Amino acid sequence: MKISLRAGERVWINGAVLRVDRKVSLELVNDVMFLLEAQVMQAADANTAMRQLYFIVQLMLMNPTDVDAAAAVYAQHFAALQSVCESHEMLAGLAAIDEMVGATRYFEALKRIRALFPVEEAILAGATAASPEAA
To answer: What is the spatial distance between Cα 10 and Cα 119, in angstroms, rounded to a whole number?
Structure first.
């Protein structure tokens, strides 16, 4: 896989953070876990249940030497999310995500979680619209 980075951009590869000082292309010739800086979510942006799930899985990808702590948080958060979710689309997505996380396919899980952000937004917008009106 070939990735291109701009000057000053960072990439996380198997837990290591690389920052480049000029435009560069990297060719990853073996199976590695990586995350581009544009895909990294900051803790302050993890303000919904799915974004929190994304942040947890992101930690698993970014720090592969200490997955156990993040995996425990993931298991708790996933179980809570699954127990309150009523959307069939969301439940199917969560099942797929859990399978990917179980197989340590964290990058694929992050992509699937990102795909569910609009679904979560629609659910939250509907919940807000369904709540009692302020008079």
So the answer is: 30
Radius of gyration, CA atoms only, the chain: 17
Cα(113)–Cα(96) distance, rounded to whole angstroms? Answer: 10
Percent of the chain with pLDDT over 70: 93
In this structure, what token pair is assigned to residue 38? 């544009």
What tens digit of pLDDT does each residue of 80-96 get? 999 999 899 999 999 99
Calpha distance 44→55 (Å, rounded): 10
d(CA 114, CA 135): 36
Question: In the numeric block, which tokens belong to residue 54?
Answer: 């994304």
User: Could you tell me if 93 and 119 are in contact, meaning their C-beta atoms sit under 8 angstroms apart?
Assistant: yes
Domain ranges of the chain: 1-40, 41-135
- Cα(65)–Cα(68) distance, integer angstroms: 9
Query: Which tens digits make up the pLDDT trace of 4-19?
Result: 889 998 888 887 888 9
Cβ neighbours of 50 (radius 10 Å): 25
